[in-house]
Amino acid sequence: MTPTPLATHVLHDGAGVPLVLLHGFPLDHRMWSPVVAELPPGLRVVAVDLPGFGHSDLGHTPPTLEAAADAVHAALRHAGEGNGAVVGLSMGGYVALTLAERHPEVVHGLGLVDTKSTADTEEARAGRLATARAVEDTQTLDAVMGMPDKLLGPTSKMERRSLYPTVDHWIRSQSPSAVAWAQRAMAARPDRTDVLHRFTGPVAVVVGAEDTITPIDEAKHMVDAASDATLHVVANAAHLSTLEEPAAVAQALTELHERVVEQL
């Protein structure tokens, strides 16, 4: 089946190897804007809205990360983008690993930000499926409107209260069908640590020091699994480090891009 076309956004014009950015749940490409503003000039940055999110249609996309990865691959090829360093936060990290598994020729480097390579626990899987049913039954986003408190950490709660309405607005911009699709896709994902075992390119693992959703132990697990990985712990940030401490994340991604270019 031909993947439903996804929206791609050139966030930073430049030449050469692109940084391809995949957003977290339940957000869209806008979550990368603070990081992109901190990147050096001349670096090409392309963001993709995953199925149903942002400007992308959901269509008949099956609720799997494999379908999402295939759709990302098709979107990049359709946009004429070259192979690059693929960076994903949370759900975007799951898709990045799936892309490296299914279309390894596209992925010269991996940036795994506030994410993990392991599968959900049974409890977490059940929670995702319950959320999917809730948003479908009510046709509202009520079941995920508490997420800003989970995505943002204690430092943001004390010192960056202005971030909360921003994240709230991004979530309210999404559709119940996309939220349900994503929850089912993430619930069905397998452990992909073996993808990191096989991956030979540079890997940057970035994690907020205050992240309780995908904590530092999960980040260290990925670093240990990869053959060429660096760990970047971002102080004063939680699961949405791209918004909480964008300069630190930008530095880690710039270094990843440099490592990718050096190996080509």
From TrEMBL:
<dbReference type="InterPro" id="IPR050266">
    <property type="entry name" value="AB_hydrolase_sf"/>
</dbReference>
<dbReference type="InterPro" id="IPR029058">
    <property type="entry name" value="AB_hydrolase_fold"/>
</dbReference>
<dbReference type="InterPro" id="IPR000073">
    <property type="entry name" value="AB_hydrolase_1"/>
</dbReference>
<dbReference type="GO" id="GO:0016787">
    <property type="term" value="F:hydrolase activity"/>
</dbReference>
<keyword id="KW-0378">Hydrolase</keyword>
<dbReference type="Pfam" id="PF00561">
    <property type="entry name" value="Abhydrolase_1"/>
</dbReference>
<protein>
    <submittedName>
        <fullName>Alpha/beta hydrolase</fullName>
    </submittedName>
</protein>
<feature type="domain" description="AB hydrolase-1">
    <location>
        <begin position="18"/>
        <end position="246"/>
    </location>
</feature>
